[in-house]
């Protein structure tokens, strides 16, 4: 796929790829996507052709290099009991960069926060969840695929009243062999009592976006533009 480089007219803290919206500037939305660990900005940018044309699609690249064309938002290790320990300083740094990038991209594209959606797969989904819970004023909603909620972020969570009206797409694979389904249940249970509009779905797949999952999430995005 021909993936146009981030246009020079955008000056952002993080690099990536963009597909401009086909809507009039005053009606355009912004979808910011973040890849999983060990991947890069081209990964989720491959979804751009499926995203409704009202959206600018901005696919970001994480700041920490793991190898050739492989990046992470933060490093982590798996403990003997299956739990994970993260490099908290890296997560905090990446979250700050993501927040700055989302805010500056929206400003430069002329998109108000009420038309900004931030999403991601796996570790990118973690970043989306963390941004929603700590800086909800930057966005209208998030879409999260096959991810988990960081307990390290919960002490920074804003008062739930500040999340009123936010939209959340949360989906997971019933056979996910990287981030278990129970992680999605924990995220769902954490968000359920909050004043967000939560759409939760499960699909018969492993740690990958199921074709029905993509179709349903795209329909959810379309519904947001029509609300």
Question: What is the domain total for the residues?
Answer: 1
Which runs of at least 5 residues are low in confidence (pLDDT < 50)? none
Report the CATH superfamily. Alpha/Beta hydrolase fold, catalytic domain
CATH architecture: 3-Layer(aba) Sandwich
Please state the CA-atom Rg, rounded to the nearest Å: 16 Å
User: How many separate helices?
Assistant: 5
State the major sheet.
7 strands, mixed
Tell me the span between the first and last alpha carbons.
32 Å
Helix % is 25-40%
Mean pLDDT reading: 93
Label the structural class. Answer: alpha/beta
Strand order of the largest sheet: 1-3-2-8-9-10-11
**CATH class membership:** Alpha Beta
Q: What kind of assembly state do the chains in view correspond to?
A: single chain
Order of helices and strands: EEHEEEEEHEHEEHEH
β-strand amount: 15-25%
Specify the overall morphology. Answer: globular
User: Total number of β-strand segments?
Assistant: 11
Q: CATH topology, which one?
A: Rossmann fold
């Amino acid at each position: 796929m021909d993936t146009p480089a981030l246009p020079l007219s955008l000056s952002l803290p993080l690099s990536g790829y963009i597909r401009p919206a086909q809507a009039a500037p005053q009606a355009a939305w912004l979808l910011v996507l973040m890849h999983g660990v060990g991947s890069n900005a081209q990964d989720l940018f491959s979804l751009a052709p499926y995203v409704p044309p009202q959206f600018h699609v901005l696919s970001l690249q994480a700041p920490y290099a793991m190898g050739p064309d492989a990046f992470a938002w933060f490093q982590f290790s798996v403990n003997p009991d299956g739990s994970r320990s993260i490099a908290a300083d890296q997560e905090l740094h990446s979250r700050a960069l993501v927040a700055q990038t989302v805010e500056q991209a929206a400003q430069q594209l002329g998109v108000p926060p009420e038309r900004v959606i931030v999403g991601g797969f796996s570790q990118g989904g973690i970043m989306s969840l963390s941004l929603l819970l700590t800086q909800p004023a930057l966005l209208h909603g998030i879409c999260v695929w096959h991810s988990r909620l960081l307990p390290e972020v919960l002490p920074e969570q804003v008062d739930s009243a500040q999340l009123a009206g936010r939209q959340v797409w949360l989906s997971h694979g019933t056979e996910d062999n990287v981030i278990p389904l129970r992680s999605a249940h924990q995220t769902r249970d954490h968000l359920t009592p909050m004043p967000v509009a939560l759409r939760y779905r499960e699909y018969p797949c492993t740690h990958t976006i199921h074709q029905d999952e993509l179709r349903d999430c795209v329909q959810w995005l379309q519904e947001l533009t029509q609300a």
